[in-house]
């Protein structure tokens, strides 16, 4: 008998021998399959250490950004996503998933010659298909930032001059393709998976607890380029079309953006190219999993004589050709380089093209690498990478010529290309690239093979291949940063303008603009360097760790760790994990809040054989045994063997450096994905229109110049000057003014933003989704009490608020013991930690908890592995008994001393699809063991003896759930004679069957104080509100009514299966009213049928707002897969509560709403919300972290009131951006009008006049316009996001006509005055400068100065999105000071001001007439903006509707709503 050495520990193995224990340990840890609905919770299906939805979720960085993804559902295209629920696959069928890694040109292997002898390429079996990396592939494409690393950094820490987004780990793209899920042949993302690789007996089963240890086999998916297809070779072929076309649903006619107003598709198909040159491959499409993006690699080599010719052209054009080549790299490639096979591009480079047509050029580097080919590449070549373009002998000859593989498959050189801290290596056998981080060590076949660590020679090789274990951000020199900044088109345009103004003798103006530009560049450089420094400090980490090298434990720096190293966690001193590690032995508790935003400790268990096999097969790792880099260590504990000796906790290094989860997170911050916002696209187009107007104006002026006889060189200078007037250099900078002020105001409110571009998107929100627990309701649930069973009656007893009043019962399985043992709590530093619900339930009992020690056993099996599990996981004792020892209980005169101790022998962790957890418990000295199950009340009916339920079960359950309480059901049974060994071998389905119902635990679910006012404010603004929760539907309805999310008087209908279930297409759903089950909905139209006779209301009297829907996860999945399109759309629009939803289903709801045209905001608080937070257009995480990466917005105040602030600030920022852009555009057009009128007789504005307008009027007004605060209330209609909308265009064109009319009047009026004297002849004063001192100039200048201020007032939109401009003290001060100064210049200018501005003297009557004209201009402009613009826009809208038809162009959800009214 094996016992623990501690006096308070006892033998729960009941006489099992050490051999029996070891055997059970091995067999008991065989492939415990997870539920088909919860694969993302861990490879073994045991979730996290705590029960409750979401606590077993992977860190969001893994589930969205890194190497772990349970499969995303598509919402961008109905036809691609209708049949993708996890449970839509055929049971037992193999799902073939699209390639995850390198999708490449098809090629064939015909046979290597002597160079490859000894290890010919092994073709895979048709059922074993891999991609270039051997990894499963999601076919989504994702955008990659054009701004590069420093633009992304600047955005992350406050710089807002570019529009970028910081994605966290599972960032959603609005593109249909980017939302495309991994598909099986049957069209299911989540096909059930089987594994028949061996016939070793498994102790798992397929009912849902345990996950198959083998993922679906991967299919060959080749991305298609039509232009790259030749008769014999298909290059870059496309992914196979999803099957199940019978159920395909076409996407209705909606804008792929924000329903036609805001979002635009940032992804484009790769550019069509000519067929590649014959020979080895020169093109390749690779999917980068942790960036969720697809890139295309093309090999190039520069042609020497063309390169010299290009350099000569750059010199001859004074660098202009070089700038064009930098801005348009395709131009440079077309003229200088030619496409070349990768394997032949020894001195060439690789062009990497993103999904946005962005090109990045990377040189091919050659590393001295005298190691075997399998140390860097897979030992077998996937069939989809087998070459058809050249024979193996030809490839072999090329390799010999290039000196890559001299003999015996030992490489001499390794060709690599580093792209965004990801390394691609060229496989000489195929001539294609593979991602280095996807390489797996072929020598690892079992856990025993990794426990000996690595030799120093192998570590040297892997250090060369993978690099140091450092997340080291490369810092550019100041000169390099300066060059990158200066060659930006914005600054090049400013430099050209300064040069032009200098040639035009506008020295003062040119000097001031140059000074401002230099200051801006310096500030930007300092900010960028500061941001880089901060980012490097955040990402850097190193520590000392013990590594097993050459059979000895050696202390080394963590930066020298390589994949395959075995690390001693017990002896290593670190608080943060230095790499991604697989736990080999012992146990660990870590805090993954950096990744998930949720500070709940996560328990990690040792790696098992199937986990290693899964990892080696290039499939996703089991997150339950993976320690992610950067997560904080709460506790690491070694193991105690059955003989009492202790062993340290060991871990295997899986990934290092930027290949880790933390590295992927840092990369996502360095290279954020751009967000497509229609406002930004329209602004660029509008600038193009302005440039066109400049061209037209110059054509008119050029005719006048020629007629007057102005020299040609002056005409050219004037033409260029006119462009700088119409397209002001400061125009692009104004786009970020509103966003900058909004972010600053949000920060003061405790709301932090890591994605500035999402601020404007928040202005377009029209549906808000909320999690319930912890978001709408308080985090901590308080126990209201427990309801056990009466002793001799089949009904519930009274509500007991004190555990001491709870009777023990007659059987061995008691309610009290279940409360004390059925949990996954841990003890750390004397504190019980775990899920808050578990902590509350255990605290209710008042018992004490002690963790058991870990035992291990070693047995020779097929894989020769050592496994370990806990002999006793947890020991609990009633209060007051902890001080007794065994000898105290047994000694004395009493025949049997009372000593109560319960040991948890085995735990079946919480699984979201089963909605329950269970434990096997042994009472000390008892001859039996008890099984206790805790879970949702609905699931107990299937696993409990029906006779054990009280008669009032349904009534009492309905009573509590309808009043908003959270109810947990408890059941148990006793198994006589069950030994420890048999308990380890017991299947979950055996344990969780034939149970006796024991009672209910009722938790209070209190609303947060700010929930109801926030929901009421949102609903009064006509913003749709949705609740997406994992809780009971009746509880959710109660909470929704309490917080006014649903009207108190609204009838709520919920579905239930009357035939079949989720898996059966022919199932039938029936919608019944929750208050009266006899009242139904039409199953197709989802409209209420005739109410029962006792209802006073008729069916036709039920309005659209008088009823609502609540749906559960199982019905939701069935409708997604099998319901008619119209019914599905009506359900999505009408449902306000989505209950019993898993984390992946929450994400699905968000994406389905987006597909209907909604702009979705998601607010959540935990790891189970991460996927939905990232999928939403605006995600808000209620997290304590200042910049949690779980969502674009985080708030330190856990209250949904932050939603109101984000929406208000978003609308204010969007309106401000419009106002500033319209102001800058009209300012340039006003100045353009003045200059064009002056050009008609060869005159222009003077140097100081330009200076006065641009510096003293425009800049102060443009900056202070953005300081207007948002309006306190949210207006029911969101602002427009399109610059080409009828309202915006009507406003701009109307104001332009009014101001131009005023200037033309002044121009003609002054010429008719008696005191008017004509200007001098058209000959320039000196150089290129035109005459500026004349009456026309003075009149136009004085009138236009007021117009610049007037337009600021007109475009400073106040209510309903911003407060009135009168509340903006800075703007009013600027307007007041400038208006006063303008009045002074108009009525009585001091002599020095008149001379400085080249003003002509005017009589007082003329000045008063001009003042009257200015006043009339003000009145006309204000009146038009208030009444005229709206009416004209309305008239245009009516004409458009009449011409196009009333229903065309409307968003899908509006069409659906209209059909249901």
TrEMBL record:
Residues 1-216 are annotated as: Disordered. GO terms for molecular function: ATP binding; ATP hydrolysis activity; ATPase-coupled monoatomic cation transmembrane transporter activity; metal ion binding; P-type ion transporter activity. It catalyses: ATP + H2O = ADP + phosphate + H(+). Residues 15-29 have a biased composition (Polar residues). It is found in: Membrane. The keyword Cytoplasm does not apply. Residues 544-669 form the P-type ATPase A domain. Residues 169-182 have a biased composition (Basic residues). The chain crosses the membrane at residues 506-526, 686-710, 722-743, 1224-1242, 1248-1267, 1288-1310, 1339-1357, 1369-1387, 1399-1424. It is a multi-pass membrane protein. Residues 1248-1418 form the Cation-transporting P-type ATPase C-terminal domain. Keywords: ATP-binding, Magnesium, Membrane, Metal-binding, Nucleotide-binding, Phosphoprotein, Translocase, Transmembrane, Transmembrane helix. Residues 291-426 form the P5B-type ATPase N-terminal domain. Its EC number is 7.2.2.-. This is Cation-transporting ATPase. It comes from Tricholomella constricta.
């Amino acid at each position: 008998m094996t016992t623990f050495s501690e006096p308070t520990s006892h033998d729960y193995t009941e006489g099992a021998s050490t051999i029996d224990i070891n055997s059970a340990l091995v067999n008991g840890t065989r492939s415990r399959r997870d539920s088909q609905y919860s694969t993302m919770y861990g490879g073994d299906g045991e979730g996290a250490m705590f029960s409750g939805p979401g606590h077993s979720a992977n860190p969001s960085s893994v589930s969205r950004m890194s190497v772990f993804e349970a499969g995303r559902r598509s919402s961008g295209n109905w036809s691609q996503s209708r049949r993708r629920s996890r449970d839509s696959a055929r049971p037992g069928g193999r799902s073939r998933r699209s390639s995850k890694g390198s999708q490449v040109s098809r090629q064939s292997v015909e046979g290597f010659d002597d160079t490859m002898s000894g290890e010919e390429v092994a073709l895979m079996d048709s059922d074993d298909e891999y991609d270039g990396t051997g990894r499963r592939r999601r076919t989504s494409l994702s955008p990659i930032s054009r701004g590069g690393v420093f633009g992304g950094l600047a955005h992350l820490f406050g710089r807002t001059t570019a529009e970028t987004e910081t994605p966290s780990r599972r960032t959603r793209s609005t593109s249909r393709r980017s939302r495309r899920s991994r598909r099986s042949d049957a069209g299911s993302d989540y096909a059930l998976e089987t594994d028949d690789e061996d016939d070793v007996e498994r102790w798992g089963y397929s009912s849902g607890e345990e996950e198959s240890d083998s993922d679906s086999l991967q299919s060959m998916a080749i991305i298609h380029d039509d232009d790259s297809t030749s008769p014999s070779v298909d290059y870059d072929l496309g992914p196979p079309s999803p099957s199940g076309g019978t159920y395909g649903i076409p996407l209705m006619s909606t804008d792929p953006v924000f329903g036609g107003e805001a979002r635009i598709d940032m992804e484009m198909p790769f550019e069509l190219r000519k067929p590649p040159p014959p020979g080895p491959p020169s093109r390749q499409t690779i999917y980068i999993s942790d960036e969720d993006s697809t890139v295309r690699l093309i090999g190039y080599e520069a042609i020497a004589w063309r390169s010299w010719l290009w350099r000569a052209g750059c010199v001859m054009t004074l660098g202009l050709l070089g700038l064009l080549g930098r801005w348009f790299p395709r131009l440079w490639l077309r003229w200088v380089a030619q496409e070349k096979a990768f394997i032949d591009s020894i001195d060439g480079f690789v062009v990497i093209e993103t999904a946005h047509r962005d090109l990045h050029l990377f040189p091919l580097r050659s590393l001295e690498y005298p190691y075997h080919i399998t140390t860097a590449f897979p030992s077998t070549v996937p069939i989809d990478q087998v070459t058809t373009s050249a024979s193996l002998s030809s490839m072999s000859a090329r390799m010999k010529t290039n000196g890559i593989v001299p003999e015996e498959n030992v490489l001499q050189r390794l060709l690599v290309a580093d792209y965004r801290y990801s390394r691609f290596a060229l496989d000489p056998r195929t001539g294609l690239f593979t991602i280095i981080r996807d390489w797996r060590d072929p020598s690892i076949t079992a856990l025993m093979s990794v426990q000996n660590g690595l030799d120093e020679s192998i570590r040297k090789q892997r250090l060369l291949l993978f690099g140091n274990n450092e997340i080291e951000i490369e810092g550019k020199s100041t000169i390099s940063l300066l060059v990158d900044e200066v060659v930006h088109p914005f600054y090049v345009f400013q430099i050209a303008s300064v040069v032009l103004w200098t040639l035009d003798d506008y020295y003062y103006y040119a000097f001031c603009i140059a000074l401002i530009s230099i200051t801006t560049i310096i500030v930007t450089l300092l900010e960028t360097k500061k941001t880089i420094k901060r980012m490097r400090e955040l990402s850097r980490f190193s520590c000392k760790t013990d590594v097993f090298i050459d059979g000895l434990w050696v202390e080394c720096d963590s930066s020298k760790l390589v994949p395959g190293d075995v690390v001693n966690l017990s002896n290593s001193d670190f608080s943060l994990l230095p790499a991604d590690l697989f736990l080999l032995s012992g146990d660990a508790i870590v805090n993954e809040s950096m990744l998930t935003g949720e500070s709940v400790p996560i328990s990690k268990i040792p790696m098992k054989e199937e986990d290693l096999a899964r990892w080696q097969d290039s499939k996703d790792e089991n997150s339950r045994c993976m320690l992610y880099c950067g997560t904080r260590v709460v506790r690491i504990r070694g193991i105690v063997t059955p003989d009492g000796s202790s062993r340290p906790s060991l871990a295997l290094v899986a990934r290092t450096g930027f290949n880790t989860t933390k590295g992927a997170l840092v990369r996502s911050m360095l290279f954020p994905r751009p967000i497509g916002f229609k406002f930004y696209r329209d602004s660029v187009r509008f600038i193009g229109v302005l440039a066109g107007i400049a061209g037209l104006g110059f054509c008119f002026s050029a005719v006048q110049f020629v007629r007057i006889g102005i020299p040609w060189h002056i005409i050219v200078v004037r033409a260029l000057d006119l462009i700088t007037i119409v397209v002001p250099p400061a125009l692009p900078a104004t786009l970020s003014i509103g966003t900058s002020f909004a972010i600053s105001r949000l920060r003061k409110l405790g709301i932090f933003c890591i994605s500035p571009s999402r601020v404007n998107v928040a202005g377009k929100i029209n549906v808000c989704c909320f999690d319930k627990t912890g978001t709408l309701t308080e985090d901590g649930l308080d126990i209201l009490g427990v309801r056990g069973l009466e002793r001799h009656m089949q009904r519930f007893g009274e509500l007991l608020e004190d555990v001491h009043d709870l009777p023990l019962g007659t059987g061995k399985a008691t309610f009290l013991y279940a409360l004390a043992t059925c949990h996954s709590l841990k003890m750390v530093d004397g504190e019980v930690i775990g899920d808050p619900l578990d902590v509350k339930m255990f605290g209710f009992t008042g018992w004490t908890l002690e963790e058991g020690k870990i035992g291990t056993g070693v047995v020779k099996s097929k894989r020769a592995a050592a496994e370990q599990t806990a002999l006793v996981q947890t020991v609990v004792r009633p209060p007051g008994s902890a001080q007794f020892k065994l000898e105290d209980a047994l000694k004395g005169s009493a025949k049997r001393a009372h000593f109560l101790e319960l040991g948890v022998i085995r735990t079946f962790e919480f699984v979201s699809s089963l909605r329950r957890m269970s434990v096997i418990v042994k009472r000390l000295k008892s001859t039996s063991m008890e099984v206790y199950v805790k879970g949702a009340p609905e699931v107990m009916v299937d696993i409990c003896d029906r006779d054990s339920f009280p008669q009032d079960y349904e009534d009492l359950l309905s009573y509590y759930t309808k009043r908003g309480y959270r109810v947990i059901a408890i059941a148990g049974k006793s198994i006589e004679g069950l030994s420890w060994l048999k308990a380890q071998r017991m299947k979950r389905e055996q344990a969780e069957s034939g149970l006796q119902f024991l009672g209910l635990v009722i938790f209070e679910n209190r609303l947060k104080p700010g929930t109801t006012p926030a929901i009421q404010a949102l609903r009064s603004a006509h913003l749709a509100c949705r609740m997406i929760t994992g809780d009971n539907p009746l509880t959710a309805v109660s909470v929704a009514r309490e917080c006014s999310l649903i009207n108190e008087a609204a009838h709520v209908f919920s579905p239930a299966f009357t035939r079949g279930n989720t898996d059966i297409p022919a199932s039938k759903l029936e919608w019944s009213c929750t208050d009266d089950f006899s009242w139904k909905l039409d199953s197709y139209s989802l409209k209420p049928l005739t109410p029962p006779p006792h209802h006073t209301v008729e069916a036709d009297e039920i309005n659209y707002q008088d009823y609502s829907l609540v749906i559960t996860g199982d019905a939701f999945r069935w409708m997604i897969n099998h319901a008619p399109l119209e019914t599905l759309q009506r359900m999505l629009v009408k449902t306000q509560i989505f209950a019993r939803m898993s984390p992946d289903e929450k994400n699905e709801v968000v994406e389905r709403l987006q597909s209907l045209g909604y702009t979705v905001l998601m607010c959540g608080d935990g790891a189970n919300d991460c996927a939905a937070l990232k999928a939403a257009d605006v995600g808000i995480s209620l997290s304590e972290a200042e910049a949690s990466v779980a969502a674009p917005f985080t708030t330190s105040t856990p209250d949904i009131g932050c939603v109101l602030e984000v929406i208000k600030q978003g609308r204010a920022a969007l309106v401000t951006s419009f106002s500033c852009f319209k102001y800058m555009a009209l300012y340039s057009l006003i100045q353009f009008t003045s200059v064009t009128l002056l050009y008609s007789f060869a005159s222009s504005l003077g140097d100081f006049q330009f200076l006065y307008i641009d510096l003293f009027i425009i800049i102060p007004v443009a900056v202070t316009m953005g300081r207007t605060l948002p309006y306190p209330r949210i207006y029911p209609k969101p602002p427009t996001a399109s610059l080409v909308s009828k309202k915006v265009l009507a406003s701009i064109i109307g104001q332009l006509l009014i101001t131009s009319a005023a200037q033309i009047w002044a121009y003609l009026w002054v010429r008719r005055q008696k005191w008017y004297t004509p200007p001098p002849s058209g000959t320039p004063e000196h150089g290129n400068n035109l005459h500026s001192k004349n009456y026309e100039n003075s009149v136009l200048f004085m009138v236009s100065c007021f117009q610049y201020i007037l337009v600021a007032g007109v475009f400073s939109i106040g209510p309903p999105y911003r407060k009135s401009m009168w509340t903006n003290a800075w703007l009013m001060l600027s307007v007041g000071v400038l208006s006063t100064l303008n009045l002074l210049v108009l009525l009585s200018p001091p002599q020095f001001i008149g001379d400085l501005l080249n003003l002509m003297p005017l009589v007082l009557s003329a000045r008063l007439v001009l003042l009257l004209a200015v006043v009339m201009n003000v009145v006309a402009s204000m009146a038009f903006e208030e009444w005229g613009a709206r009416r004209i826009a309305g008239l245009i809208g009516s004409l458009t509707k009449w011409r196009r038809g009333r229903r065309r162009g409307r968003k899908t959800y509006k069409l659906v709503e209209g059909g249901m009214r």
